[in-house]
Design goal:
This protein has helices at 4-28, 45-53, 76-85, 96-106, 146-160, 178-195, 210-219, 231-235, 237-246, 256-260, 271-286, 308-313, 320-325, and strands at residues 31-37, 62-68, 90-94, 112-117, 136-140, 166-171, 198-203, 224-227, 251-253, 265-269, 302-307, 328-330. It is α/β, with parallel strands linked by helices. The protein has two domains: 27-142 and 271-293, Response regulator (Rossmann fold, 3-Layer(aba) Sandwich); 146-269 and 302-330, Rossmann fold (3-Layer(aba) Sandwich), CATH 3.40.50.2300. Strands 7-6-8-9-10-11-12 form a seven-stranded mixed β-sheet, with helices on both faces. Helix 4 links the parallel strand 3 (90-94) and strand 4 (112-117). The longest helix has 25 residues, at 4-28.
Amino acid sequence: MITRRAFVGSLTGSLLAAPLAAEAQQAAKIARIGLLLASFPNPPEAFVQGLHDLGYIKGQNLVIEHRSAEGKLERLPDLALELVALKVDVLVTASGTPGALAAKQATSTIPIIITGVPDPVGSGLVSSLARPGGNVTGLSSRVDPMADLLGKRLELLKQAAPEISRIAVLRHPGQYSEQGEKEIQQQVDVWAKRLGVRLYFVDGRGPADFDGAFSEMARARADALMVFGSTTFYNERRRLVGLAAKNRLPDAYPWKEGVESGGLLSYGPSITDWYRRAATYVDKILKGARPADLPVEQPTKFELVINLKTAKALGLTIPPSLLARADEVIQ
């Protein structure tokens, strides 16, 4: 039998406990995000802003634990293990294929969101783009057909520098499967013939190869340069731009940061857009979605950026029609 006094006491205790329970529940809702960076010293602003727009505020309900390899990609596996040891809720990689592979090797249970990986299937990160099937999903830099994106960049370079006829293509072996690389090369060659230029594919795995690669370009009498996407090339973009300038080669890149560093032009997916989209994946996973069920997105937004200062240094006059199409022009 429950007495009135016991009932009132029980009710009072429940009312007192309610705020404490709510406070504990609120504390449990703090999202802990691990961020693995290849070169950025801090989390990309677009990623943090994307989370903010979705209601995640640093210092309130969001903690971002980040680790940067500072351009030394061999450090990525150890840094991934550090983030896993912190028991983050989600692990986000802003370090291309090397960082994505390091993260997957470090954990098979924590959800992983990748950004800017050119071939997630060929790299063994996911079973398919539509149904990843494991603990990895996110955003790929792959465009189907990939050769069309590369061909478009080639076409823009030819429009910016009409006199060029022998273009060196710097690529990082291993970004795609062996068969994928062969197919892309064949398809880009079709674009080259259509544009009336010849391509010379030159391999470079890291900074130690760059001097030799540019010497090879000189022997081939290349008069322009197109750089394929690679985490290593992105990290070393200033050196690549410097070598291109030294050899007076009009150069084209997949990311606008190459143009901000002094390259002639870039055309490719928006990296800022990648990081904003990565924030939406974080939100979905924190709300209960499984990475296995979230399709890997491919780029939908592309940017053309042109550096007029570099054009002037190379003695080029960029056609007004090309400038009108640019998303950004650096004076």
